[in-house]
Amino acid sequence: MKNNLFLMISLKKLPCMKQLLFIIPALFFFAFAAVAQDYSNPGEYMDAISKQRENVSKKFMAYASAAAHGKKAKKVENLRAKLLDEVQEARMNIAGLPSFKGDKSYRDSTVSFIKLYYHVLNEDYSKIINMEEIAEQSYDDMEAYMMAQEMVDKKLDEGNDKMKLATETFAAKNNITLTKESSVLADKMKQVGETNKYYNAIYLIFFKAYKQEGYMMEAVSKNNITGIEQNKNALLKYAQEGLEKLKSQKPFQGDPALLNACKTVMNFYVREVNEKLNTISEFYLIKERFETIKKEFQKKSSPSKEDVDTYNKSVKDINSASDAFNKASQSLNKERNDVLNDWNKAVKVFFDEHTPHYN
User: Fold this and answer.
1) Within 13 Å and on the Cβ side, how many CA atoms surround 275?
2) Which class for 335: exposed (0-12), middle (13-18), buried (19 or more C-beta within 10 A)?
3) Which residues have CB under 8 Å from 70's CB, separation 6+?
4) Do both 37 and 178 map to the same domain?
5) What SS3 class is residue 227?
6) Using CA atoms, how far apart are residues 12 and 9, in angstroms rounded to an integer?
7) What is the C-alpha to C-alpha distance for residues 314 and 291, in angstroms, rounded to an integer?
8) How many Å apart are CA 187 and CA 182, to the nearest integer?
9) Over 50: is that where the pLDDT of 131 sits?
10) Among 50, 116, 125, 239, whose CB has the most other CB atoms within 10 angstroms?
11) Averaged over 287-311, what is the pLDDT?
12) Could you say which DSSP state residue 41 is in?
C-alpha cells in the first residue's frame, strides 16, 4: 500500500490580531481669545489647561501610529512608558495651577480626566495585555478580549463627555464663547478609533471560522472520523454565517480590500467542506475497513480464493483512496496557504493605509 502523505500545515499565529491600541477619544479643542498673559484671565487659564491635554494627545497619537504600523515591540513599549510619564506630568502641571477666582471645578475635572487616562494606560492596558496572551485559544477568549477593549473605550468616552461638560460650564460662567475647531490631531485620533472598530468586527467573523477549521484539522490529524464530521459541519455553519454577516458590512471608507479578503477565506472554508472533506473522510473509512480485512486475512494460515480476492480488492481500494486523499490534501493546503497569506497581507495594508502616521 502506498504511504499516504497528508500535508498538514501548522495553523500559525496570524499577524492579524494587531498590537493593542486604546481608542482614546479625540480630545475636543476649542478656540478662544487669550487677552492676558496670566491666569486671572479665563481664556488664558483655559488655554494653559488645554495645551497640557493636547500635548498628551500628540504623544498618544505617536504611540498608536507606531503600534499600528508594525514598529518593534520594544519601541512601542518605550513609547507607552513615555506616554505614561507625559500623562503623569500633565496631571501634576494642571493640579499645580491655582483655582480660578476660587472656582476649582474646571481644574479638578481636568485632573480627574487625566487620572482616568493614566489608569487606563497603566492598569486596564496591563489587564488586557494579559488577556491578549490567551485570546487566540478560543473564539470566546477572543470575543472577551475585544469586549474588554470596548469597555475601556466606553469608559474613556464617558470621561471625555464629563470633561466636555466641565469646559462648557466654565466657559458659560466666565462669558467665554467657544468655537469648536477642526483639529488635524483630533481627526487622526478619530480615524484610529474608526479603523480599529471596523477591523475588530471583520476579524471576529474571520477568527470564528478560522479557529473552527483548526479543530477540524486536529481531528483529521488524529484520524478521528466522528470529530471530522462534527467539526466540518460546524465550520460550514460558521463560514456561511460569516458570509451573511459580511453582506451587511460596507467597504471601509471606500476600501473593500479587507472585506473581500475575509469573504475569500469564508468561501474557501465552504468549498473545503463541500468539495474536499468528503474525500478525506472517505479515505479514513476505507482505511478503517482495510485494517479490519488485513487483520482477519493475516490470521488465516490457508486463506481461500475468496479471502484473497477480498483482500486484494481492499488493497486496490485503499491505494485509490490514498491517491485521492493526497491530491485533495495538497490542493487544500495550497489554497489554504494562499487565502491566509492574502488575508494577512490585506490586514497589513489595511492598517498601513488607514491608520494615520504620526511621529
Assistant:
1) 11
2) middle
3) 348, 351
4) yes
5) helix
6) 8
7) 9
8) 8
9) yes
10) 239
11) 88
12) S
Shared domain check, 342 and 224 = yes
DSSP string of 90-141, one letter each residue: HHHHHHTSPPBTTB-HHHHHHHHHHHHHHHIIIIIHHHHHHHHTTGGG-HHH
Are 251 and 168 in the same domain? no
66: part of which helix (H) or strand (E)? helix 42-68
Domain that includes residue 314, residue range: 207-354
Q: In this structure, is residue 170 part of a structural domain? A: yes
3-state SS, residue 358: coil
pLDDT of residue 27: 47
Query: What's the mean pLDDT in 320-344?
Result: 94
In a domain, 11, yes or no: no
Residue 252 per-residue DSSP state: B
Domain total for the chain?
Answer: 2
Global pTM reads: 0.77
Per-residue pLDDT of 134-189, as tens digits, reads 888 899 999 998 888 888 878 878 888 888 899 889 999 999 887 765 467 667 77
pLDDT digits (tens, 9 = 90+) for 22-74: 444 444 444 433 333 457 889 889 888 888 877 877 777 777 777 666 656 56
- Does residue 169 sit in the same domain as residue 263? no
Residue 43 lies in a domain: yes
Residues 69 and 120 in one domain: yes
Contact of 190 with 27, CB cutoff 8 Å? no
One-letter amino acid at 150 equals E
For residue 229, being part of any structural domain is answered with: yes
DSSP string, 293-340: HHHHHHH-SS--HHHHHHHHHHHHHHHHHHHHHHHHHHHHHHHHHHHH
Q: Are residues 174 and 286 in the same domain?
A: no
233 lies in the same domain as 345: yes
How far apart CA 337 and CA 342 sit, in angstroms, is 8
- Tell me which amino acid residue 162 is: K
Pair (105, 217) in one structural domain: no
